[in-house]
Amino acid sequence: MTLNQQSTIELSTATARLVFSARTDVGSVRKVNEDSVLAQSPVFLVADGMGGHAQGEVASQTVLRVFDEHIARDLPSTPERILDAIHSSNDAVRDLSAADDYGTAVSGTTLAGIAFVDAGDSGGYHWMAFNVGDSRVYTWTDGVLAQLSVDHSAVQEMVDAGLISVEDAEKHPERNVITRAIGADEFVDADVWLLPALGEQSFLICSDGLTKELDDTAIARVLAIDIRLDAAGRSVADVLVDEAIEHGGHDNVSVVYVESAFD
Question: Which residues contact 177 (CB under 8 A, 6 or more apart)?
């Protein structure tokens, strides 16, 4: 699935203009794409169904359905509504789990994204970033790519504790073990950030199928080209996904790229 669109959000004192592209691909090895993407102003997200678990594909698609039901299109949302969508997604994914002959099969998915929100009279307009699992949210500012989210993974905890290096984490046998997921527990603990919506801002949201194949330097090299559509008609999301597949595409690959400006 590929998407390249523009959208406007009318505010009381300005207009938010958004340009965004999204793509999800099964990759070169997997037979099923368990990733799902939502690029629908004011919410942009990636959900990566848990590989090896029951109904990973359905779990990620369930998150999209819940957000679509909860969030009005092309209008600022609120932090409360986004949090409600996250918790409702957790409930809906848990409802997918069913007992079988071998015990309980648990459905699950990561969730990473951003939403344009009105934080109220005292807060004003913000980009609200959120994350559960090891899909990522990055900011792209003045040619600098910075990871905003923190991976909820076993190897990230080892890195934080000083037990292994970042380089070791990339090759560690537990690199695919995540410590939080939508649907894994009765209550979901999501990380959330509020960033004031000012000037020009850009965000990259992706599943680990991208970051397993391309490091931050390689990703930044693509973003630095500053393309909307290249000579072949590919969006930023297309180019990043194609690069990941060319480097092996060992997992499903999903990318959402969002640019915003205010006038």
Answer: 153, 154, 155
- 163 — phi, psi (to 5°)? -80, -30
Cβ neighbors of 22 (< 8 A, separation 6 or more) are 1, 2, 3, 4, 37, 38, 39, 44, 237, 254, 255, 256, 257
Is residue 159 a contact partner of residue 179, using CB atoms and an 8 Å limit?
A: no
Taking only the tens of pLDDT, the chain with its 263 residues reads: 567 788 999 888 889 999 999 999 999 999 999 999 999 999 999 999 985 555 789 999 999 999 999 999 999 999 999 999 999 999 999 988 764 444 455 689 999 999 999 988 777 899 999 999 999 999 999 999 999 999 987 666 676 666 666 665 666 555 667 789 999 889 999 999 999 998 999 999 999 999 999 999 999 999 998 766 666 778 999 999 999 999 999 999 999 999 999 87
Structure tokens at 193: 């950030």
Angle at 62 between CA 56 and CA 65, to 5 degrees: 155
What structural domains and CATH numbers belong to the chain? 2-258 (3.60.40.10)
Token pair, residue 82, equals 């986004």
- pTM, rounded to two decimals: 0.91
**Contact indicator for 204, 137 with CB cutoff of 8 Å:** yes
Is the bond into 76 cis (omega within 30 degrees of 0)? no
